[in-house]
Amino acid sequence: MSDNITLTAELRQDVGKGASRRLRRQGEKVPAIIYGANLAPQNLTLSVNELTKVMQQEAFYSQILDVMVEGKAQAAVVRDLQRNPASGRVNHIDFQRIRADQEMHVSVPLHFINEESCVGVKMGGGSIAHNLTEVEISCLPANLPEFIEVDMEEIDAGSSVHLSDLPLPDGVTIVALTYGEDRDIPVASVAVRRGGIEEEEEEAATDAPEGDTAEDEASADDASEGDDS
Predict the structure, then answer these.
(1) Do 194 and 111 fall into the same domain?
(2) Is the CB of residue 114 less than 8 Å from the CB of residue 153?
(3) Do both 93 and 111 map to the same domain?
(4) Domain limits at 56?
(5) Nearest-CA neighbor of 157 among 187, 118, 185?
(6) Residue 68: strand, helix, or coil
(7) pLDDT tens profile 164-198
(8) Given the DSSP bridges, would you call strands 126-130 and 186-192 parallel, antiparallel or unpaired?
(9) What is the pTM of this model?
């Protein structure tokens, strides 16, 4: 696991939608809230500059953060992040506190490896499609992985990698699979390109005349010449 990301927050006394709008208009602070772990929720403000910097790290969205409130670190994960649909600016963040002895649900990124040597691409003329870029897992904080690898090397054209195929660290489960086999959806697949070798062969077979072959036609011509002589 990577080093924890630290965010410094201030307690926010002025709460409500109007207060949040005024805070955002000032342009220097972002409203937030932290809750969970059997403790009272706390309304916070975060520095826009500090938040913008840490959000550039992939781990910000899936790893445990240290949210510093009045000089005390609170371990938490990002539970919800709201953005302005027009500008992309962060409007509000929800943090959920975590406890070492309680399992947590969090989405972690998928890292696709060996795509350049994928059998279905190199030998089958296929193309790789990513159906998911992250997956929700359940685990204790100590077992939280930074990411989960998806190895595409041995995937044939027309085949897929499903959730149940993913290699998971000890103590980690995929939340969707706990609801039944019907949730075992594809993570990535190798589709056969239209116009590929297989399709050309199929078209050639379809275009071939039914019944007589070229050899049969030649025999028929020979028989016809024999009748004329």
Answers:
(1) yes
(2) yes
(3) no
(4) 5-99
(5) 118
(6) strand
(7) 999 999 999 999 999 999 999 999 999 997 654 44
(8) antiparallel
(9) 0.76
If DSSP codes are grouped into helix, strand and coil, which group holds residue 22? Answer: helix
CB 77 within 8 Å of CB 32: no
Query: Residue 71 in 3-state DSSP?
Result: coil
How is residue 214 written in tokens? Answer: 């070229």
The two three-digit tokens of residue 187, written as one number: 């993570």
Q: In what order do the strands lie in the sheet with 186-192?
A: 126-130, 186-192, 160-162
CA dist list (Å): 104 to 43, 77, 161, 167, 209: 22, 9, 25, 19, 64
Give, in order, the Cα–Cα distances in Å from 112 to each of 22, 50, 72, 116, 229.
42, 30, 37, 10, 72
DSSP 169-209: -TT-EEGGGGG-GGG--EEEEEEEPTTSHHHHHHHHHHHSP
118 and 66 in a common domain: no
Start-to-end C-alpha separation, the chain: 90
pLDDT, tens digit, for every residue of 199-225? 444 544 455 455 554 444 444 455 445
Nearest in space to 106 (alpha carbons), one of 144, 75, 67 = 144
Comparing C-alpha atoms, which of 52, 31, 7, 40 is closest to residue 94?
A: 31
